[in-house]
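Please predict the structure of the following assembly.
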Amino acid sequence: MGRKMHSREDVSRQKTEDLGIPDLLVLNSEGDDETFYAVHKRYFKKHKSACPACGSTKTRCSKVVRRKFKDVLWDSEDSFRIIDIYFYQRYLRCDGCKDSVFPEDIDFGQKGCRYTNRLSDVLADGTFRYSYKKVSNFFGVPASTASVGAIMRRRIQYRESLLEPIKTPKILCVIETEFYDNTYPVVLAIWNNEVYCLDILEDTTEGAYINFFKTLDADHIETVCVDPEESLRSAVATCFPMASVVMTEECVFRYARNAMLSIIHSDGKRFPVRHKDTQLTLHKKYLTDARVKKQIKKRMKSRPRLQNAYEKHQNLLELLETDWTYEDLAAWADEIPEELNEFADLIDLIDIYEIELRAYLDGERHLPERYITSVQAVCDAFKNMPRCIFDVLRARSILTPGFDTIEEDGKKKRQGIRYDRLTANMNQITENIKEEREYGLER
Ligand SMILES: [Zn+2]
């Protein structure tokens, strides 16, 4: 045991140079240029790896495991080769704590990943904007689903490390967005009368909110616009005790629209109006096409529940255009019959969040004029993104377009991503993936 299989004479200088991974020495071998057999450069040194369990350097080689990695070599900017590296990884036994056996450290590949870091980074960069499968196909490597998480996380960490600290806004808004079977909070900031996206959080637990809120300067936050979620309300109370907590008209509007959409999807099947989701949730006065108006009226007759919901929804839209009071809203909620149970969440919201709604109505309104449509655009962009794990969704939506920054005390700080740039970028990625666009090198 411990006798070395390879000697220094086995090392090929040329192939080591061709591979160009600083820690690896490539051994002479017969055969093609696409296969490299390598050992770590410490293989020929006296230096002993320390045991990760006890720190002792009384370690010795107990076995060698041949691990295969896929790797990429660039011949020029747009011409590459995919190669195989067979790496002889040593496992060491520690004399200090006897039974402890550990693999020698490497930094060109991640544990459990069959790609080298530099190949995995290239795949991740592509997968930020295209489907992982298309990118893997382009590079001619298997689209290993076991590896995609590790590949993406590594690149996300890197991109994250480049981010400037957040500049804390005066007005913070949290919108809970549906994405397949999950709900992810999107955190927005208001700057210069526009909506900016700061981040998207992994879940709606109090812990997730607090972790994010802790990155902000609590003294700067004046107003927090919340969604109806207990964990959010309690995280805001913990982190921003001085802030005014409000529930905006936008939230009421969004909950009403979502209720209406679900009624359309259940009772309005085969409703013969193009873009019915949009047409049936718009304020009537924005329906410009007389034929569509007539159609809606006529076709509603055979769908009484839909018609009832439509009228109630229209009443609300009408109300929201006036200088409404909390009492007006509560009166509207009282009118909703039980059969329109899709509105139940909204009715609860009006009931439970009276204080926050009143705080909104009584406070100075500093929200942008286009706040409702901006938020709707953001929610729709998230809803349309192709199904993927949270890390990938977050990377695609907020780590690809680049943040808007502002200088403060000589330091760059990030303000978020302006909503229109955010949604344009997300919609482009959605199109790339849903329309199965072929990936190509963007250089
Ligand atoms: Zn040990």
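The CA atoms of residues 429 and 435 lie 10 Å apart. Residues 51, 53-54, 56, 94, 96-97, 100 surround zinc ion (CB under 6 Å).
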